[in-house]
Amino acid sequence: MNIFKGIIAYPITPFDREEKIDLPLFKTLLERLVQSGANGIAPLGSTGVLPYLNDAEKEAVTEAALQQVNKRLPVLVGVSCLTTERTLYHAKFAEKAGAAAVMVIPASYWKLTDEEIFRHYEKIAAGISIPIMAYNNPATGGIDMSPALLKRLLQIPNVTMIKESTGDVQRMHYLRRELGDDVEFFNGSNPLALAAFAAGAKGWCTAAPNLIPDLNNQLYAAITRNKLDTARTLFYRQQELLQFISGKGLPRTIQAGLQIQGIESGYLRSPLQPLGTEDDGRLRDILAALGN
Amino acid sequence: MNIFKGIIAYPITPFDREEKIDLPLFKTLLERLVQSGANGIAPLGSTGVLPYLNDAEKEAVTEAALQQVNKRLPVLVGVSCLTTERTLYHAKFAEKAGAAAVMVIPASYWKLTDEEIFRHYEKIAAGISIPIMAYNNPATGGIDMSPALLKRLLQIPNVTMIKESTGDVQRMHYLRRELGDDVEFFNGSNPLALAAFAAGAKGWCTAAPNLIPDLNNQLYAAITRNKLDTARTLFYRQQELLQFISGKGLPRTIQAGLQIQGIESGYLRSPLQPLGTEDDGRLRDILAALGN
Amino acid sequence: MNIFKGIIAYPITPFDREEKIDLPLFKTLLERLVQSGANGIAPLGSTGVLPYLNDAEKEAVTEAALQQVNKRLPVLVGVSCLTTERTLYHAKFAEKAGAAAVMVIPASYWKLTDEEIFRHYEKIAAGISIPIMAYNNPATGGIDMSPALLKRLLQIPNVTMIKESTGDVQRMHYLRRELGDDVEFFNGSNPLALAAFAAGAKGWCTAAPNLIPDLNNQLYAAITRNKLDTARTLFYRQQELLQFISGKGLPRTIQAGLQIQGIESGYLRSPLQPLGTEDDGRLRDILAALGN
Amino acid sequence: MNIFKGIIAYPITPFDREEKIDLPLFKTLLERLVQSGANGIAPLGSTGVLPYLNDAEKEAVTEAALQQVNKRLPVLVGVSCLTTERTLYHAKFAEKAGAAAVMVIPASYWKLTDEEIFRHYEKIAAGISIPIMAYNNPATGGIDMSPALLKRLLQIPNVTMIKESTGDVQRMHYLRRELGDDVEFFNGSNPLALAAFAAGAKGWCTAAPNLIPDLNNQLYAAITRNKLDTARTLFYRQQELLQFISGKGLPRTIQAGLQIQGIESGYLRSPLQPLGTEDDGRLRDILAALGN
Q1: Of D169, D176, D192, D223, which to mutate for an interface test with B (greatest number of B Cβ within 10 Å)?
Q2: Which of A109, A117, C56, C149 is the most exposed place for a label (fewest CB within 10 A)?
Q3: Helix, strand and coil percent figures for chain B, each rounded to 5
Q4: What is the pTM of this model?
Q5: Do chain B and C touch: 3 or more Cβ pairs under 8 angstroms?
Q6: Which CATH superfamily is domain D6-289 in?
Q7: DSSP strand E in A79-128: where?
Q8: Nearest CA in chain D to B222
Q9: Which CATH number fits domain C6-236: 3.20.20.70, 3.40.50.2300, 2.40.50.100, 3.40.50.620?
């Protein structure tokens, strides 16, 4: 009944030296994620630098992702834009291309009122038939949707999932208490993985499977088997990496981490720049300690 | 020697019912500002909802603004985009169209490092000959540039001006103390107008002249004449309005305020929605108390 | 080897109508906690309004507590004062009276440097032989000790335990990762009970056993039996109460909750006032829903 | 009609090597302030480490201060305690000793509701005949009184003055707009001195006259003579020192600054420790640059 659960893996969007999207490389990296054991794939997320792409690029990545995954796993496509009109446009495009659901963060310049946010979701939801995951991430999107507003968004028929990335487990407690055991909330804060699963999160939206898929999958497996001790041990093994990639920014750290592991990962688009030497060294140490 | 000083007026970008830009109305509203006594004009600012426009729209508004102002006043054009490449593109366009300077906020999704921000400004500055005003507004742009970083940006030859919109007067004290009396910092926080002028701000970047140009101009005149008492009295007359338009969002409040004063101001682009009834009533009261 | 683990119960300090401490009532309420199944007792905590008592009162409560518990459970006595001298004085008094350990929060008026805090703990530790629990609670104490400082405090021989009350589970992750599985960190944030136990907290410092001891004890039991599902269910049963007592202040809510349950709980000392009618009604509803 | 205006100078409370109050030294330092040209004297403020003293010490300092000032200037005595009862006690003591007014900050451990704060002030006000200055300083006291609450406190007959130390000039704008030109608000944030006077503050509560009385007095004189340019120049001369003493803590920096200037200033009471070597050196440089 739930489309998504467990590990939902986020690919980066790699660029070439001229900062053009490298679609063949994107497909290669996506294929790694599909084969890593993830339960879902989410292109054009924050990790996939959605807001830095133009319309044509978003369409190309959407199509490439769905083509490559080829129904082996459900695909969640990020479609957020600043205007309602453009968000709806890309939501429709993703639906047509075969996405299982779309993810929408109320990307902001001006702070939006709750009413504006509700209408934004309502209009997008009315234009498509697939489910919407409402995504709260004030650190990137600039708007903090309260748990009460998120609860209200779930009244819109095809807004069926919440992705909470504030890192505040109390938001999850609120949703679960107010909406019952079946509420589909997902965790988007890597360092909160253990606490969120303990709180009943249905899944973990994460770029970490680009680097440490086995540890991510094993943590989820321990949770589903109700083994708290095992889950705790597994979590602490990966905790430093999760903290690092969250703290230093996912596009930069995943790109660097892949390279450290000998996997081609392309270039970033300016103003984003590669990790500096010191951070790169630290990431190298963390990965080495994990045997990667 | 300084291009900008005093009151730098920010027009809204009006839309029609279908949420397309209404260029003729834009020119009409711009003409009001030019004739209001402002010392400069700044299209495509936050008030002008720059981030909600596509490339073609930004170009059309830039050209319309420069054509309409027709060298009567210096024009400062907002050109910020998430990517360095697009920002540079629009900066070049503005220069060619006749802008006196461009304004650049490091619009963000991912938090940028100081190094990334510096390189962003450096690349843009290298591609144009006109001055850049570095614009700090974490509440909208999502990135907070420290006073130390702003000081560093002023080392780039054509980054010559700072617009500080945090509302924290201590940032201005820092810049003035570190860089001397001649440092060109501008205030972008309406409720800080008096404190910023007291601190030595060269000008006030504001949308208020759309509604109360005389009060704005008189405040600046009192400051230039060194009359603190008069400035204080004038400031407190307009303080409630300044607080209101900042608190409720400039595009919404300026659009509503113009309408209240019987001036056609078009529509907003979604997700932005008109002021609600209660706020509209309060704005009506504030303007009425000012005799508007 | 560990003195404290599991549920460490915090009594209130009840007053009479004239706002004098009601010691007989204090002992009665303490006895309820001892018999509730708690694993430890902590008089003169935040719940016990330590900072609102004078020296003689602190001594009287310390003696009354140790006399009443009479070695049936380990007793943790709060001894924090603003000055180092007074804190040491009360620490010595508690040791002499038979406390198993003392709890010290760096109560603050002026923000203290890390060096000042370290020396404060060092001097107190040097003057007593029993262990110290370093208590971090910026919301009440006004100083936020970083995880790195807490780690450093554990270098002082008899600073052996950390009580973390920020409600930020990442602080616990840091301590556990840096100091290993044996690090004795305790959770002092009621709404974080589940996440903290999941993260490996040795115990839960809480006033909740005054009202719902069985739910508290069962949650800890589920954790020790490694039953995450059961723990989650038990946590969500009590979550609303935990949120409420934290949000509205422990002295007020425990005093009111006891009264609602028909248990005499005395009066508060001004400026603290009883819960207002609305909050009292909400607490009544929450307790009723729990069958209390 | 107003008792206080202009520069209200705050003495430190000096201790001897054994951390006992050095009353003779206190009187000597107080005398310097009286002769420095200040408009009022405020013992037992934050600078005077009020919360670190016991009852007898507070009384001794109060009497010593009033005796030494001997009606040459109005004296404002800090009397805040955590409990209402103790605050009232010391307020009465100060009145009897000859204080012109008392200063009350709602010193907190548990966050107080607005109702609790209002009743606290009401009870204290009812017990004395002299005016009360309500003091808002969340950074030290732990409670942030909103401008609306401060406005409400002014309804209590002998709560006649507000001391605002948040450093947020908008709070002052609110008070002035809501309560008119005559509202007696004082600034307690040193780095805000210029902005607060520009906003209409009646006075500046400051420890700076211990170190740079002439610059402080001249700034106030420029304001009263309506000379904004002169005020700005004088402010920027002292701005770095004001920032430094606020940032590093008034008791530490004033004690060190006096010593640097060759004036005996005693010792601090633990946990407060002297400025470290690096900060001491920086303070030396700042004072030297001012010719001190």
Answers
A1: D169
A2: C56
A3: 50, 10, 35
A4: 0.96
A5: no
A6: Aldolase class I (3.20.20.70)
A7: 101-104
A8: D228
A9: 3.20.20.70
